[in-house]
Q: What sequence folds into this?
């Protein structure tokens, strides 16, 4: 079973966008995927209630940190959407149970400042230090050619963490979310630019999972 945590202590950073679309990718690929929601707002589980039965199936899972939980039999991939303000024992408990952590960050001074202490703490977690969980960052709502992107890369250099991808600001994510859909539920030609942006994230996860090619 392969597990991914989407985490950033700042609200509105794009966690649910990443989590739902990753779950959509795995579902479209024919994998049995659980979308675990650790957020009290239950944004991801709310999104699932709008998902049409005709789309590839994604199962929902309300995860309560500190309580024993086990994914249903046959689950192949778990994607965990975490809450704002994640820190301390809750962060440690989640990182201990996953293979990969993806941190979405927007390239603004406020977002970078809010993420700095979190990233420092994340790299202190035993699972990360021991190489049991690996961390990557996704730049959200940004064009990689802009000064903002360069400033975010400079900020992240202190942590030696890879920027996996840059996802631009587009209403496509909003439109898909209102229908419980993802990029991977559209015909490839309709979302070619966005899917190209996602490919480095998918490649990183496939290599991590040992599914190359």
A:
């Amino acid at each position: 079973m392969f597990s991914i945590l989407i985490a950033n202590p700042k609200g509105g950073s794009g966690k649910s966008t990443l989590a739902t679309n990753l779950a959509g990718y795995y579902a479209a690929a024919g994998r049995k995927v659980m979308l675990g929601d650790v957020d009290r707002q239950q944004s991801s589980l709310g999104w699932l209630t709008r998902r049409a039965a005709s789309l590839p199936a994604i199962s929902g899972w309300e995860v309560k940190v500190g309580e024993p939980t086990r994914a249903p039999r046959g689950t192949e991939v778990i994607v965990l959407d975490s809450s704002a303000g994640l820190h301390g024992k809750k962060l440690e408990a989640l990182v201990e149970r996953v293979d990969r952590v993806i941190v979405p960050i927007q390239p603004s001074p406020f977002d970078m400042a809010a993420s700095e202490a979190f990233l420092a703490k994340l790299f202190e977690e035993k699972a990360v230090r021991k190489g049991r969980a690996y961390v990557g960052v996704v730049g959200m709502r940004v064009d990689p050619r802009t000064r903002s992107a360069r400033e975010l890369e400079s900020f992240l250099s202190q942590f030696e963490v890879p920027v996996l991808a840059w996802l631009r600001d587009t209403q496509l994510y909003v439109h898909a979310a209102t229908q419980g859909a993802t990029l991977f539920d559209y015909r490839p030609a309709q979302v070619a630019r966005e899917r190209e942006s996602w490919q480095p994230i998918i490649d990183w996860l496939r290599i991590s999972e040992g599914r190359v090619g």
